[in-house]
Amino acid sequence: MIENRKQNGYRIVMLMIITILVTILLTTVVIYNVGFKSVTTKNIYSTDSEISVTLANFKTIIDKYYLGEVDDEKLLESAIKGYINGLEDPYSEYFNKEEMQDFKEETFGKYTGIGIYMVKDIERNAIRILTPIKDTPAYEANILPGDIITKVDGESYTADTMNEASNKIKGEAGTKVVLEILREEEILTIEVERKDIKLNHVESKKLSNNIGYLKVSTFDSGCSEEFEEKFEELKKSNIQSLIIDIRNNGGGIVDEALNIAELITNKDETLLITVDKNNKEEITKSKKDRKIDMEIVLLINENSASASEILAGILKDHNKAKLVGVKSYGKGVIQELLNLSDGSGLKITTNEYYTPNRNKINEIGIEPDEIIKLPEELEKLLEIEESKDNQLQKAIEILKK
Question: What predicted TM-score, i.e. pTM, was given to this entire model?
């Protein structure tokens, strides 16, 4: 499957420095575009630059003076990781051979883990829970949005070491991990058992006044097909308008978001504009006829990111939906995953993307048409009663007019 995606130039927008801990080795599902490319080891490692000379000098010193045993492969890997970290780009990262294989398997593989999305909280240098995934071990353990992970199995972690924390949290089904959680001023210790997890991309229901409701939790593989199927089911129940809820959706596969956008936009309308470091522009347009032609409200919030923002930008710019909620996250840069010849990989920021009207998303986000903030006491609840969800109620009010 990965080879097919490679041949097709398949691109992925993943979660915003957000990690889904749901696969057997899934800990770095970050918002980005992945294009599988091969780069030869010769081009990567063979150089007469000042950097290689400097590293060689340090190796000479280590070999001469260091008391302990030296693992040259580990030193090289650490040097590369540190070099990439020096970019100070939270989305660029080096994977060793094992990590690269894990990453490719987990991108399209079976999910096992505790079921949380987490994000680097740069301001606090902390690991913050974006949201637990519904009906997963983390959800059942009452881990809440906004919780800060301070320790994993007794070891402290910060935003700078989130990948290491991810590796510590991952594991096989049936094993357990102990998290120390900071919730406001309270320290909690929560033991969670890892399990096999089935992700439901889309939830659907019919509301009063013949309003359909589709909640998209993530743009993983198969999401757009599931979205279309559930819309068709709602259509048979005679819905006249539609609410699409992408609150707390941190992203996923960009093609899945574009496929959903194609259901709602007209053929040949611009969907996405990307620009690389040389200002080379690529424009993606809808290739299909519109299938969903009814009044739509799109719900967004501060955790709607990447692929979610792509969909929101398309529908807003083309006046295909009214946006309700609060400003989105603001993640508008793209990464590509380079396959190196030794089996390792480099995920590196290569492009910035814009809405059809050329509006910038990165570090800005998308403003809703109707700004509606949830009451503070409801923001961290995993489930909000429909009648108390003022964002949802505003959407219903708009569609009832």
Answer: 0.76
